[in-house]
Every structure is written in C-alpha cells, then in structure tokens.
C-alpha cells in the first residue's frame, strides 16, 4: 500500500454535492467516520488491527460517553420541542435530539450558502419568534448576517433563549468531545430555561 488513504466524508455518509457539509453534527455520521478511519488504518497497517479496534472501542464507549449521554437525555427530556435556527448547521443535530426545527429549510440553506433569504422566509421566522412558536433559537455564531442578528435580537426580546453553536472547534485546540459536549450542554440549558424543566 502507499500508506495514504483519503476519506471523503460526504461520500461515506451519502451526502450529495451541495448537501449539508456539517456532518460532525450528526451522531450517526460521527460513528460512520470513526469506523471508516479505523478500517483505513487497518488497511494501511493490518498487523496492528487489534490495536486500532481497541482504540475505536475505547473512544466510542468511553471517550464519547458524555456526548452520547447528553444526546440521549436531551431527546428523552425535550424530544418534540419546537426550535428555530440560523442555518443548516443545526439540522442534523436537531434531528438526532428529536427537536422539531421549524425554521424553513430554504432559509437555513440560504444563510449557510451566503445567499439572501426570501422575504417570505424572513416573515415566517419573524412570526415564529413573535408568536413564541419556537422555544429556543440556535445561532451559528461564526456566520452572523444582518437577518440572523435581527432574529437573535428579536428572540431575546421575546424571552426566547438563544444558544450559540460553531462550525469549528471552539475554543481552538479543544477535543471533539469537549466541543460537542459544551454545545449540547448549552442547548440543554436553553431548553431547560425555555420549558421550566
């Protein structure tokens, strides 16, 4: 072998060209990537397959234990809760948590792609906020636009908790689990404030 393999995560998890690239927000995709990395290491270095399998098992069961338990707890405690979001980064995570993402997909995609959202989508979100149809608003703090900033301000003014997520590790250098656990705890705390439990 050449000692080098390229992992195309989009192909691995079946995302079409132009699809949502934020695959680290989908726990099933995280597991697929962990499995594929282990398989690739084994192909490159078959004599150490047992070591790679052991590391994968340890990381999946122990390293990601807090991550997995938070996902399970949020889904159990808040499944079905309606939420709003600033962009498509939240879509796979909301699904994994059992939350109902009410923001129009066309708005989520427009913001993610750097396009102008439609007036109809903005009006829909404004109404969701004003009528408190959403319990929390999840904002990608690394992709602020005037439309999103206005929604965040409107949500706060209506007493809707706003929680931030990021596209990249925050703070820089933190582990994947620590980053995701921090974000999940933020979502859990916002849902607790919004629902009173």
How would you portray this structure in words?
The protein is of the alpha/beta class and 197 residues long. Helix content is 57%, strand content 8%. The chain is built from 9 helices and 4 strands, in the order ααααβαβααβαβα. It has helices spanning 9-13, 27-44, 49-63, 65-78, 91-97, 105-113, 119-130, 146-157, 176-195, and strands at 82-85, 100-101, 136-140, 162-165. A 4-stranded parallel beta sheet has the order 2-1-3-4, with helices on both faces. β3, α8 and β4 form a beta-alpha-beta unit. α4 (65-78) packs parallel to α9. The longest helix is centred in the C-terminal third of the chain and has 20 residues, at 176-195. The mean pLDDT is 94.
**Helix and strand succession?**
HHHHEHEHHEHEH
The unreliable regions are none
Task: Characterize the overall form.
Answer: globular
Strand order of the largest sheet: 2-1-3-4
Oligomer: single chain
Q: Could you give the count of β-strands? A: 4
Give the C-alpha Rg: 19 Å
Largest sheet, strands/sense/barrel:
4 strands, parallel
What number is the mean pLDDT? Answer: 94
Helix proportion of residues, in percent?
Answer: 55-70%
Q: Give the strand content.
A: 5-15%
Distance N terminus to C terminus? 55 Å
Structural class: alpha/beta
Number of helices: 9
């Amino acid at each position: 072998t050449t000692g080098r393999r390229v992992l195309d995560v989009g192909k691995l998890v079946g995302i079409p060209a132009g699809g949502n690239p934020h695959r680290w927000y989908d726990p099933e995709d995280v597991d697929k990537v962990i499995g594929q990395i282990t398989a690739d290491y084994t192909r490159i270095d078959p004599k150490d397959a047992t070591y790679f399998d052991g590391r994968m098992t340890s990381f999946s069961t122990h390293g990601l234990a807090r991550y997995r338990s938070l996902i399970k707890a949020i889904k159990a405690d808040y499944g079905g809760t309606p939420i709003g979001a600033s962009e498509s980064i939240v879509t796979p995570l909301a699904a994994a948590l059992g939350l109902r993402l009410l923001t129009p997909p066309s708005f989520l995609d427009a913001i993610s792609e750097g396009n102008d959202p439609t007036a109809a989508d903005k009006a829909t979100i404004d109404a969701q906020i004003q009528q408190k149809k959403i319990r929390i608003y999840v904002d990608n703090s690394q992709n602020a636009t005037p439309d999103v900033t206005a929604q965040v301000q409107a949500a706060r003014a209506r007493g809707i908790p706003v929680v931030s997520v990021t596209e990249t590790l925050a703070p820089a250098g933190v582990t994947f689990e620590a980053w995701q656990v921090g974000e999940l705890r933020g979502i859990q705390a916002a849902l607790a404030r919004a629902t009173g439990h």
